[in-house]
Amino acid sequence: DQQVKQNSPSLSVQEGRISILNCDYTNSMFDYFLWYKKYPAEGPTFLISISSIKDKNEDGRFTVFLNKSAKHLSLHIVPSQPGDSAVYFCAAMYSGGGADGLTFGKGTHLIIQP
Amino acid sequence: GAGVSQSPSNKVTEKGKDVELRCDPISGHTALYWYRQSLGQGLEFLIYFQGNSAPDKSGLPSDRFSAERTGGSVSTLTIQRTQQEDSAVYLCASSYLGTGSGRNEKLFFGSGTQLSVL
User: C-alpha B13: how far from its chain's center?
Assistant: First the structure.
């Protein structure tokens, strides 16, 4: 049973436009959400996070939106740049504990076209 | 080093052989995780070490998989009698306190070991 779902395996966006990556979760205990970015042959790197007490967190070109009632979050990148081409993983956790911590989605491969 | 270091970066082995994968976490990080990513899949949790506590092995897929963490630092993931379905990228991550502490800790990942079982 997949608790974190990224239903789009890939997404192609033109340079300069907005990229929107979506993530859905099923476990209502999750209260902290993160996005990781992964380039080929490298490990994932932390990008941005959001706590369930907020509905939006912004960091430069990256904004994460959280809709708790829909159990849905999205990552917006604007404007999209060629260096943003990577696989983006959505992850969720329950901050009350639990050794396995983060539950990851399968990732979305973002391709920024010139 | 400044980041999480994993070796080897690539490992090709024959079915039935044993393999050892190494992870050197960021100095001072008490928590260490092993994940694997099979083709087309997300990151699958394998095992978690926190300080000197007994590891959480709940994610290990079979008894062919085991891991150790010596001196609270370097960790080795061992896969015995490898099978073709073990082929994946094995990722190690570390964090300062660990998610089991209830803190919202972000993980720092190594570059992974690409394991191919022929």
Answer: 18
The reported pLDDT for the residue numbered B55 is 86
Interchain proximity A102–B98, CB inside 8 Å: no
Within 10 angstroms of residue A11's Cβ, the number of other Cβ atoms is 16
**Residue whose C-alpha is closest to residue B79's, from B25, B26, B24, B11:** B11
Per-residue pLDDT of chain A (114 residues; tens, 9 = 90+): 789 999 999 999 999 999 999 999 999 999 999 999 999 889 999 999 999 999 999 999 999 999 999 999 999 999 999 999 999 999 998 877 655 568 899 999 999 999
| Distance (Å, whole) CA B70 – CA B85 | 28
Inter-CA distances, A92 with A54, A62, A105, B68, Å = 15, 18, 9, 26
> Which segments in chain B show pLDDT lower than 70?
1, 98-105
Are B76 and B62 spatial neighbours (Cβ–Cβ below 8 Å)? Answer: no
Q: Which of chain B's residues have a Cβ under 8 Å away from the Cβ of A30?
A: none
Question: Any CB–CB contact under 8 A between A40 and chain B?
Answer: no
Which pLDDT score is estimated for B40?
79
Residue B50 DSSP one-character state? E
Task: Return d(Cα A95, Cα B88) in angstroms, integer.
Answer: 29
B49 touches chain A (CB under 8 A): no
Residue type (1 letter), B36? R
Contact assignment for A102 to B104 by CB distance below 8 Å: no
User: B56 vs A101: CB contact, 8 Å cut-off?
Assistant: no
Out of B4, B91, B100, closest to residue A101 by CB: B100
